[in-house]
Structures are given as structure tokens and as C-alpha cells.
Amino acid sequence: MIVRVGNQVIGDLAVNSATYSDYELIYSGPAGTFDLRVEFTNDYLANGEDRNLRVDSIQVDDCL
Predict the structure, then answer these.
(1) How many CB atoms lie within 10 A of CB 27?
(2) Is the pLDDT assigned to residue 39 strictly greater than 90?
(3) In the chain, N or C: fewer CB atoms in 10 Å?
(4) Span 19-35, pLDDT tens digits
(5) Which residue has the higher pLDDT, 19 or 64?
(6) How far apart are the C-alpha atoms of 38 and 4, rounded to whole Å?
């Protein structure tokens, strides 16, 4: 899973859990409005195996 703020990668994490799990990333950047993107980079479908990524929630804290 790759997480980006704007075009900057802030995390490249291995997701190998079959249940919901917490992943924490720390990012410090300029003020403003940016896109937050989560990319599932380990998708797979073959031989009865189907990998999926489900995002239940995203929490963004402002710590000035």
C-alpha cells in the first residue's frame, strides 16, 4: 500500500493481514489543500486467491 499526499509518497507499507489493522504514518508538510491517495499495489487474482484492500477509515490529526 502506498500513501501519498499530493505527489509525495509518505508511506510504502506491506499489508499482509487478513483482518482490519491500524497503520500509522507521520507527515509534516506545508499548509494548504492536498489530495490524500491510498494505492493498493499488491493486487492479485489467480488460482483461487483474491487479494483486496479495504480501507475502513482515515484519521488526519492537525498538530501545529
Answers:
(1) 13
(2) yes
(3) C
(4) 889 999 999 888 889 99
(5) 19
(6) 7
List the chain domain ranges. 2-51
| Sequence letter at residue 40 | F
pTM attached to this predicted model: 0.80
- pLDDT tier for residue 63 given thresholds of 50, 70 and 90: low
Dihedral of the alpha carbons of 62, 4, 22, 25, in degrees to the nearest 10: -50
DSSP state string for 1-58: -EEEETTEEEEE-----SS-----------SS---EEEE----EEETTEEE-------
